Sequence to fold (146 residues):
Amino acid sequence: MGDELGLTEEEVMSEVNKQRGGYICKHNLKIVYDTLVHRCDELEHPADEEEANELDRNKTMFIKAFLLFLVGVTIFANKNNKNVHMLWLTMLQDLDTVQEWSWGGMTLDFLYTQLSIATDPTIGVVSGYMSLLEVKKNFFSITYYI
Fold:
């Protein structure tokens, strides 16, 4: 997590302890993103090759932070809506292969798993991308009448 988002080992361990597992608080992820964007703004016109390399590293990290936030609060949202599971960061390690992942299949699998869990009467909240269910419901009701 640290290498992918520019966090120190101490920051990672602090977050893991606070979140009681492999999660990052959405607020802290936003701070990481803002810090990386600010650093990229500072390096907009690199003075030397070292700054150019740092700019490239920071751009990659802020893209990963943004994508992690995006998938963590939409298609792979959890019930508490306060943190993002760091598991999703493993899919973003190589940005050149992100388009090769079956995002639709992963989304449906995650959603169906969460719906299956929600069939337990003791579970009060469903996780996942509920907007997908609305689209599916509305699409099929429209095609039914056509």
Q: What stands out?
A: Residues 142-146 have pLDDT under 50 and may be disordered. Helices lie at 2-5, 9-19, 26-42, 49-73, 103-118, 130-145.
